[in-house]
Amino acid sequence: MSPALAQREIALAAIALLAGIVSLALTAHGDRTKARSLIQPVTLEGGQWRTGLAGASPPHYGRRTNCGFVVEPGTVGVTDSVLPCGIKLFVAFGDSPRVLTQVIEHSAVPPGRKFELTPRLAEKLGIDGVQKIRWVFAGTTPT
């Protein structure tokens, strides 16, 4: 193969690659502007929230969880032994407003409990000790 032919083939391949990248960028930008969404509760089992016991864990500020989050005094999150890292949930207690949170640690919780809460989340919910909370997965609903 001559050097000139090889240069032409490389140039054509580069143009095709560039066209593909531009096409993907335009498609992704169009999808983003059309499909804006808000996070809403995803109710399961006929619209029922789930319940479980939850309590605040003692603070260990500055440590990194096995999900990669650094726990600070303002961190709002839960530890769960089953749900994967980063799953978003709404939690509520009594008449408190629901709070959007996420699994920030995937590890064992004390027996009988569904979640361990960060102190800040327990404070937002008004929980002292171990209490029965309501929870539901968060999802997206198109606007």
Care to describe what's here?
This protein has helices at 3-34, 119-125, and strands at residues 37-42, 50-56, 78-80, 88-92, 99-106, 115-117, 130-142. A 6-stranded mixed beta barrel has the order 2-6-3-5-4-7. The chain is elongated, with a radius of gyration of 23 Å. The protein starts with a helix and ends with a strand. It is of the alpha+beta class and 143 residues long. The chain is built from 2 helices and 7 strands. Residues 30-36 have low confidence and may be disordered. β4 (88-92) and β5 form a beta hairpin.
**What is the typical, i.e. mean, pLDDT?**
82
Task: Return the structural class.
Answer: alpha+beta
Estimate what percentage of residues fall within beta strands.
Answer: 25-35%
Q: What's the N-to-C terminus distance?
A: 57 Å
| Sheet with most strands | 6 strands, mixed, barrel
Q: List low-confidence stretches.
A: 30-36
Q: Roughly how many Å is the radius of gyration? A: 23 Å
Strand tally, please? 7
| 3D shape | elongated
Oligomer: single chain
Biggest sheet strand line-up: 2-6-3-5-4-7
Total count of helical runs of at least 4 residues: 2
**Succession of helices and strands:** HEEEEEEHE
Helicity, as a percent range? 25-40%
